[in-house]
Structures are given as C-alpha cells and as structure tokens.
Amino acid sequence: MVLSTGDNRVRTAVFISGTGSNLKSLAKFSKTKISPISINFIVSNNYKAKGLNYAKEFKIKKKVLNFKNKKLSENKLLSILKKNNIEMICLAGFMKILSKNFIKKFKGKILNIHPSLLPKYKGLNTHQRVLKNKEKYSGCTVHFVNARLDSGKIILQKKVRILKKDTESSLGKKILAQEHKLYPKAILKVFNL
Ligand code: GAR
C-alpha cells in the first residue's frame, strides 16, 4: 500500500463487535512514531460492545449501526467514512460479513484478524473445532478482506502450540495475546515498513 501524501498517516477506521482488545492494541500502536496509520473512527454493529469505551479513552469518533438492514447500514457507513476521509479499515472482532459492494469500495484496503491459521478453520468457534480435532498448533492470521469469508491474501500469521491441558478459554487467551502483537506487525508489513 502506498502512503498518502500530506499528513502521512493513513486515516483508518476499526470495526468491532465486542471487547475490542485488538482495537486497544491498534490504538496504542497508532500513537507510536513508527505507525503508518492513525485511528480516526470506530464502528460497531453492537451498541453494547465494551470496545466502544476506547472511543473516549483514545478520543476517537465512533458510530454504532445495527446492520439489521445491511444495505442501509452499509450505505450510511460509506457516507460517514467518506466524510471522515477514511482510507483504510481494520476489522477487529467484527462479526458481520460485509457485502461485495462495500468491499469493492475499499478494494485492497480492508484487513481482518482471524483466530486460526487460515486457510484452516474459517468462520466461527475456531478454538472449539481446533481442540476437537486434536490439532497440535493453532494461531492467528491477518489477511486482506475479499468477497469470500476469511479467504483473502494472507499478510502474516503466528503459530501457537496447543498443550494437552488447553481449554477453549486458555487457548483463546493465548491466541488473543499473540493477535495484539500480530496486527501492528501486519500493518507495518502492508506498508513495507
Ligand atoms: C479476536 O480473537 C478476533 O480474532 C476474533 O474475535 C476476537 C475479538 O476480540 N475475530 C473473529 O473471530 C472474526 N471472525 P477483541 O474484541 O478483544 O479484539
């Protein structure tokens, strides 16, 4: 991705649905000198998302859209993002699937983080399925978003070893801790930094 001219930080929106721990890690990263992005907008489909509290903490604008009518919500969102000069989107635990039309408008500019070693375990309940299949490793992946679920070009992955004693919850925590490091690294990679 090429850095835009003028203010050389790329104006980015983070989309969340829940806790927002990846949003927090991205917001912290965006404050560092090496960050090529600034976080200027938070979007949630869920007004109860805990992560929305980071809007206040980091002084970032926010918007909640319920996505009950996807087309309507996406159209509103596109106009808000345009108004705020948003150039890039980071999905961070955003549990809605964006339409082809929306993705086309931000072609090559939407990243997602997924809690598995893609292309394995696309979709939901990854840790549960990984444990059921007695995998030795799982991990997380940052990838570009295309029209097919969890299928866009992989940017970076981090492997995590699964121990016999691991539960869905312990594995989830281990992977989440790695996600917080992986997302900023993947962003640096996207900008060839
Ligand atoms: C993260 O583990 C993220 O990888 C996952 O949701 C969690 C959100 O945590 N995303 C998906 O499963 C997307 N399919 P957070 O709200 O604390 O960042």
Q: Helices and strands in order, then pairings?
A:
Elements: E1 10-16, H1 21-30, E2 37-44, H2 53-57, E3 61-64, H3 70-83, E4 88-91, H4 100-105, E5 110-114, H5 126-132, E6 137-144, E7 154-161, H6 168-190
Parallel strand pairs: 1-2, 1-4, 2-3, 4-5
Antiparallel strand pairs: 5-6, 6-7
This protein binds glycinamide ribonucleotide.
Architecture overview:
The structure is a single chain. This protein starts with 9 loop residues before the first strand and ends with a helix. The mean pLDDT is 96. The chain is an alpha/beta fold. The radius of gyration is 16 Å and the shape is globular. Helix 1 runs parallel beside helix 6. It has a single domain (10-190), classed as Rossmann fold, CATH 3.40.50. It has 6 helices and 7 strands; from the N terminus they run βαβαβαβαβαββα. It has a 7-stranded mixed β-sheet with strand order 3-2-1-4-5-6-7, with helices on one face. Bound molecules: glycinamide ribonucleotide. The site of glycinamide ribonucleotide has 14 residues, from helix 1, strand 5 and helix 6. Residues 16, 18-22, 51, 92-93, 113-115, 176, 179 line the site of glycinamide ribonucleotide.
Estimate the global geometry from the Cα principal axes: globular
What is the CATH first-level class name?
A: Alpha Beta
Question: Do you know the CATH topology?
Answer: Rossmann fold
Using the 3D structure, state the CATH architecture. Answer: 3-Layer(aba) Sandwich
Rg is: 16 Å
Number of strands: 7
Ligands bound, unique: glycinamide ribonucleotide
Beta-strand percent range = 15-25%
| Spatial strand order of the main sheet | 3-2-1-4-5-6-7
Q: How many domains in all?
A: 1
Terminal-residue CA separation: 11 Å
Which parts are unreliable, with pLDDT below 50 for 5 consecutive residues or more? none
Query: Largest sheet at a glance?
Result: 7 strands, mixed
> Could you report the average pLDDT, rounded to the nearest whole number?
96
Helix fraction by DSSP (H/I, runs of at least 4): 25-40%
